[in-house]
Amino acid sequence: MQDHNRQIPLRRFKGRSFVVAGLAVGLIISLFQALTQIQEMTLVFVPKIISIFVVLLVTLPFAGEAMYGLMTKIAARIAAF
Description:
By secondary structure, this protein is an all-alpha fold. The protein has one domain (about 1-80). About 90% of the residues lie in helices and about 0% in strands. α1 packs antiparallel against α2. The longest helix is centred in the last third of the chain and has 39 residues, at about 40-80.
């Protein structure tokens, strides 16, 4: 049960980082569009995709290490069973 409780914050952290990056970039782009009156649809999507990809590259080592640790614990429990 303790491992399950440790997984919940990990899932929230991974999910929030992508959402926060997309939200921040979307807000900045929407303010830019409102101030300059440029209404181009691709102006919103391309920076969001790039920012989410950058966040993915930054958080991937942390997520991989966390998943490796959890899988090692699960495999040890299975072997002990």
